[in-house]
Structures are given as structure tokens and as C-alpha cells.
Design goal:
The protein is α/β, with parallel strands linked by helices. It contains six helices and eight strands. The structure holds flavin mononucleotide (FMN).
Amino acid sequence: MCLIVTVNGSPKDGGRTGAILRETAEAVRRRVDGARIEEVSLALDWKEIFSGLWRPQISERAEEVVCRAEQADLLIIGSPIYRASYTGVLKHYFDLVDRDVMSGKKAILAATGGSQMHWLALEHQFRPLMGFFNIQTVPTALYGVEGDFDGVEIRSETLRALIDRAAFEAAELLNASAASEEAVEAAQ
Ligand SMILES: Cc1cc2nc3c(=O)[nH]c(=O)nc-3n(C[C@H](O)[C@H](O)[C@H](O)COP(=O)(O)O)c2cc1C
């Protein structure tokens, strides 16, 4: 069974970043047999996440929320751009995650911003953070600005096409991993 976990670094649970994450998770689920989706919303759990500055200090609830990322096969990680980067709470969340269990996981990266000017933060900041964890990111990163939405509904066909492409890329990776695991099991 494939577990998709969305991690939303926005202080707003029902915001634009969340809309991209939900659509992307559904687009992957349609392509991967038996995939299931779980969500991490730092808007809902930020107090728990800041219950400690390092792992042994955090609350039981925070431990559960951090474990969700550690159990994922595919992470779909999104944040609004704040001060030209991901939000502080998203960084703190990943400061708590155990590096050793993340190696080899797959990820799709997403961000929303007030301006087109900051889309490259995905390449210069989000992607290197994944590199630290040895997480394999799909080439297509997702970025939306206010004009791509009607409220929090995605209205841009370009953004929808990007979501579709990122979902296709992630599904290819997940299906290939599942096939190679099955081949190893069959050989044993
Ligand atoms: C404190 C703060 C800082 C922000 N900094 C930036 C920024 O540096 N660059 C940018 O493009 N947008 C910036 N924005 C705009 C948000 O990234 C944008 O409104 C985003 O789509 C909100 O996403 P959400 O609906 O998921 O919360 C900032 C917004 C806030 C509240």
C-alpha cells in the first residue's frame, strides 16, 4: 500500500497552498493502485510542533504529526512563500524529522506566492532541503499566484497541467519502486 502525505506549511489551513496539495494528492492517487492520502496541516498543529525545539522535547501529538512524514512513500510538500522562502513552521517541522528514515522517499514540491518573482525559491530553497534528506523530488515543481485561483479554487489551466505532470512523474517513480520490490520478493 502506498502512503501519500501532504505537508502544508501555511498558517491558513484552507488557503491556496492547501488547494494545490489536495488536487495534486488526488491526481497521484488516481494513478497509483491502492494509494491512500494523509494530511499534515501546520496551521492546525503549529502549537504542537513548537512544543519543543528538538525531537525529545515535543508533545505526543507532535510526535504523531512528525511520524506521518516519516511513514510516507510520497510527500507532497507545500508552503506559501514568506519573506522569499518557505515558512518558519515548515522548516521547524523538518528540523524535527529523522533524517535516517527519509532516504529514498519521493516528493512533489509546491508553493504559492503573492508574486511570480519568488517561484525560484522552489529550486533554491525547497529542493536543497529535500537533498539534505536524500529525498527524490520530481522535476516538475508547482507554483501558483493569486491570479491562478478563484478564491481557493484553482482556475489556471497552466497550473492544472503542471499538477497533472508532477502527478504523472511521481506515479512513475512509485510504480517503478513497487515493481522492483515485487521482483525482489519473487526472487526470494
Ligand atoms: C508574512 C507574509 C510574507 C509574505 N512574503 C511573500 C514573499 O516574500 N513573496 C511572495 O511572493 N509572497 C509573499 N507573501 C504572500 C503569500 O505567499 C501568498 O499570499 C500565499 O499564496 C498565501 O498562501 P496560503 O493561502 O496557502 O496561506 C507573504 C504573505 C505573508 C502573510
